[in-house]
Amino acid sequence: DCGRGARDCELGSGEPHWAPTLAYGVTPGKSVNFPVPLFLVGEGEQGGEELNTLRSSFILPPSALPCCSPTKVGFHLSGTVTEPATATEPEMTYKVAISFDRCKITSVTCGCGNKDIFYCAHVVALSLYRIRKPEQVKLRLPISETLFQMNRDQLQKFVQYLITEHHTEVLPTAQKLADDILSSNSEINQTHGAPDPTAGASIDDENCWHLDEEQVREQVKLFLSQGGYYGSGKQLNSMFAKVREMLRMRDSNGARMLTLITEQFMADPRLSLWRQQGTGMTDKCRQLWDELGALWVCVVLNPHCKLEEKSCWLRQLRKWGDMDVCPLEDGSYGNELPNITNALTQSSNHSQDSLARPRRTVFTRAMEGCDLHWQDSHLQRIISSDFYVSPSYQRDGESLLFNAQGQPLWLEHVPTACARVDALRSHGYPKEALRLTVAIINTLRLQQQRQLEIYKHQKKELLQRGATTITNLEGWVGHPLNPVGCLFLTLTEACRLEEENCLEISGSRPPVYQHVPVATGCQDSGESYLSLALEVALMGMGQQRVMPEGLYAQDKVCRNEEQIIARLQELELDAVLVQTLRKQCILLLEGGPFSGLGEVIQRESVPMHTFAKYLFSALLPHDADLAYKLALRAMRLPVLETTAPSGDVTHPHHLVSVVPSRYPRWFTLGHLESQQCELASTMLTAAKGDMLRLRTVLEAIQKNIHSSSLIFKLAQDAFKIATPADSNPDTTLLNVALELGLQVMRMTLSTLNWRRREMVRWLVTCATEVGVRALLSILQNWYTLFTPTEATSIVAATVMSHNTILRLSLDYPQREELAGCARTLALQCAMKDPQNCALSALTLCEKDHIAFETAYQIVIDAATTGMTYSQLFTIARYMEHRGYPLRAFKLASLAMTHLNLAYNQDTHPAINDVLWACALSHSLGKNELAAIIPLMVKSVHCATVLSDILRRCTMTAPGLAGIPGRRNSGKLMSTDKAPLRQLLDATISAYINTTHSRLTHISPRHYGEFIEFLSKARETFLLAQDGHLQFAQFIDNLKQIYKGKKKLMMLVRERFG
């Protein structure tokens, strides 16, 4: 239709109609210095950050690239774009062609050969040239209309010149066309007319922006293959953001591109691998799937989509959802959440049929969304007007459509209603999204008010029971549809101040908001969208809700909570917002079982620690009493309480003793406990210097925190805050740190904890900072805090150290009092655990004769029963070192009675102690040596050890210790007389027995070693008067008994005859 083509061609040249659509937000005359992506260059939420990334991919901005010979023929724009030379690349010129139809670019080609889902810089340059300089691009009719005006001669001349100009490229095609036209039976002659690439499509044809589907598939496939690494996760999120922007611009390619992305996600080979192995996907991948599912909800909730489109999407979603590898909504766990189309109030039989519900995949909510429509007249009126209110005469009675002020309500399952808001916002209807958001908030307010009224009637009974079964099975925080985040973003976007040169601003700068009055039909509401944003975030975060099933769902609750709080922290709290904050906090505290901060909550409710920490910090400068009341209320963690109150007998599962290992569903318990600790630490820091508040916080910690490691962390935090480097310590906070430390000691006294020694040392340091009274207290009550070993080796030893005395600047009476307590502790510990504490007790009691004697007697008494030879030898060596050789001898003798050294234990660790005991006895004199030799003979059966002892005793005269009152003869002792005779006989006997033992299982490779052993034996034999004869007889016996070992006996004869 040449006429239609000409008219549309003229319309296409009009800037207001054509230009803005080319680059979504690029308007005529506006300076643009960034590459325009395939489907969007916008200045919205996601666009700004990505524009900076895109800009860096070009050396020059597209607007700076010179365009030559731009020609517009019908719906076809062509020209050449020159890219200037650089230091490394020569100047390059590219031919560019663009086709468009009804305000959309439908195809592009460029000589640069760029393969991407974005336009190349050359296509953008030509497009911008056409937008900014339309007067320099002459408009021509479609080529079919031009040809229509030519006569035969002109047509022949036109064709021949065209072939001549491009004969190398088009001559084969021209000849083929000529042959076909001249053949009456050819296909070309069966069709009327001829195609015209410049004439545009028919008015009935679908038109959509150019999308290189193959490139989309390849890019998504590449990013998925990288497993979320190398920035691929960010790239995929960027593609999701592009889809949202396309939806906002009402570009039909949005759903097309999402379909292509989804197909590649479903073809990811890791899905079947994860399913076969029974392992869950990575967190990054799981988050991408969540966003994919949420995007499909947006697509199917398009308020203006056609029924056939929705039916097509539903078929596709069902096809994907039926595949075995399709990820489930909450990992591998079942789901008990209500259907997306259910109303706010759930039916009573919900829990009964929840088990029969089919599996829920990431696409289930989108499939359910296909059942929703926008035809409700009340809904239409809400989103179409700011001034939709109920008539004044209808405001007295109850209404499901309006509140008491006449403002419209929207009573729908809250996440579903929020999904509608997200869909409106995503499809480019921000005002409509705002109106529905306000209606939802008014509904939530009314619901909150009614819940307060219900609680007032039940308050007495619930407080008596101390527990409730009321809870929300479906939490709004961590929900797949992110209802709280959706409402908050919708409201804050309406209040965001857009600064000039916003594209040049770093993405890390926080947004700036202003109060924008709520457009409403009610007079003087005085509310702003910003205050509503804060209010709805607080309402959603404060919702009392049960902990969901599964690791991923629980982790998502924590992550979503942190995301919302991060956005809340971007708000600068002025007087209006502080008033909103105070009001909502009071309502949350008074909300009973409907609020996570109410007086009574369900035992398995999601804790409020992270939320309360934000509220505490935000409220503290404005209302400290409310801040502390709220934070102290939030400190609880009911799921860790050992028993439920006796009144709640109707639910026996609440009575189970909850040890974490016996409660596997709370996968994030460690994180939740750490958040509880963070809340407590925040309060401790804020309460510094306030004795009453510190005491209250301390009581809350002792009541609610059940982890010794976390209480220890709090104690360390309090100690650090209480002892700043540049000022005097805060004694009140120091005492809190000490009390927490004492609690940790009591909690870990009878349990294994790898940090126990660190905790004990820290407690002594803390008590030292508090003062001498604190040290005396822990010494006097050691048995409730420490093991005997800890009390003597760490606590008492540190208290009695020189550094501690100097640190405390103690006078003599104080030092004596502290030392007396330490000695008493040492004796008590030695009595209780002499094996491990005796030596420490002796060391601590050295300076007090009576105490030292008492400690020594404790050791003697315990020596015959519970102490080992190594412990006794250690104490004996200590006694000798301190100048008590006779006491050392006595302890060494007792140690010998516990020792048993076999014939083959010639490397036993006790050998050194035995040799030392022998040397000690020898140095004391003949009597002591005579007393210990029988003990050695009885305990030691190793020939080499006995011979070593014998050799040492014969080298010097006994009694060299020089003990007063003792006479030393100075004569060497004879092996023929007592006490060495007994030792010599035992040694010879040990050699004989050891020889026979070794010969029983000897191998040829040990023959040489055995001969050396016999040589040492001969040296010992020769110490006896008839030793030569004894050894000869011994050798003869060996030859006779072991004559079968011919080679060995030959070696014996060679050495010993």
UniProtKB/TrEMBL annotation:
Gene Ontology cellular component terms for the protein in this record: Cul2-RING ubiquitin ligase complex
Limits of the SWIM-type domain: 94-131
InterPro entries documented for this protein: Znf_SWIM, ZSWIM4-8_C
Pfam families, per database record: ZSWIM4-8_C (PF21055)
Recorded superkingdom: Eukaryota
Alphabetical UniProt keywords: Metal-binding, Zinc, Zinc-finger
GO function terms (MF aspect): zinc ion binding
Protein name (database record): SWIM-type domain-containing protein
Source species of the chain: Gopherus agassizii (Agassiz's desert tortoise)
